[in-house]
TrEMBL record:
GO terms for cellular component: plasma membrane. Residues 1-410 form the Major facilitator superfamily (MFS) profile domain. It comes from Cuniculiplasma divulgatum. The keyword RNA-binding does not apply. Keywords: Membrane, Transmembrane, Transmembrane helix. The chain crosses the membrane at residues 12-31, 43-63, 75-96, 102-123, 144-169, 175-193, 228-250, 262-282, 294-312, 318-341, 353-374, 386-405. GO terms for molecular function: transmembrane transporter activity. It holds the Pfam family MFS_1. This is Fsr family major facilitator superfamily permease.
Amino acid sequence: MKTELKALSSTSLAHLSNDGVFLLFSSLIVYYSEPSLGLNITILGYFATIYVFVSGILSIPVGRWSDSGDRDPELMSLGILLLAISLVTFSIPFLFSSSMAILTKYLVVGLGAFILGLGQAFYHPLGADILRYSLKGRDSSFLLGINGSFGSIGRAVILIIVGIMIVDYGAFRGLFYLSLYYFVVAIVIYIMSRNLRKSETYREKRMEAVIERKELVRMKSLPGVRGFLAILTVTLFLRSAFQLAISTYAFTYIDGIFKSSFLSFLFLAVALVTPIVGQPIFGQLTRRKGGDFTLLFAGVLSLLAFLPFLYFSQNYVLSLIFFSIYAFGAFTGFPSILGFLNQKIPKEVSTRANTWAWGIGNTVGGAFGILIFTTLFETLKISMELSFILMLSFLVLSIITNIMIKPFAKKLPSQITQ
């Protein structure tokens, strides 16, 4: 129980901090594009694509580093440390807004986006795996839900803190002060988690690695396993293409309607409170009904809530209500996706499977969605509202492919589905 509590507390703090900057860049786009800095919103949109893409691609070697050694606490802390460095980098153009050349501003912001992507690559595959091996074989879906709620708390609370600090202290000081928290919390997370290891001895860990390599070869010859991971990854790719595009431009959309950065921060922060409750609920739903059902339910709910959000977008209260319902379904993927993999995939390849589903499906899919939306809105000059509606096609396609997951799951070898 002590190990489980330590695992839950350290990973929850890491999840809170990691997801706390999830919408940071999308909110900073508004400030970077103001006349005082003069950065082009189209280029900033492509920077958002780069940051998400880097996060997804790097999660693959992160999973490999985790599987080949017993360094999860170090890697998890490193991810948070990189987030701290990205915050410092993002603050620099605000300090030298009048004296810094425009090209230098782009280079600094681009570097900050790249470092942010590096930092975001670490937590999700590592946190899920730490919880899994700390539970010693038991279903971790419910604890993933509790852990995921802390990620939702981070998205809501840290976002509103950023808004308040920027209003009170200015963008440079606000971001710099926030970076100090991240430097400290990276150290705290390592201290809390440093004794959480996959095996008692390095020799045992090496044996697990040998087993994993053999299992990977065997899994490649099993169409059921490959098909299951493929259809799940495609579903997550399509779903995330829609969700990340919305997340990146939601702040800009709301700010353009209500002409107030503080009201926009408040809108998103309040809406993102609903996943705090939703994460444990979806974790329990995954445990009882399976991840395929939970993902399908979340997708349909997101679709039914997003359309009225657009329809009532000029009404602050009604649009907030429907966006909150949308967020309840959309931002609960952590227990649904990783809990589902926990139910279906053997422990020898758990981190690698988490990496493909979350890194390639959920994250690279999001980068693709941001790229498509930026092209629609900025390059083709399609209105933001119509661009949102066009992006809904990705969500609809994800619902269709989601229905196909269950037949593929039934083809899995019995030793994996048990």
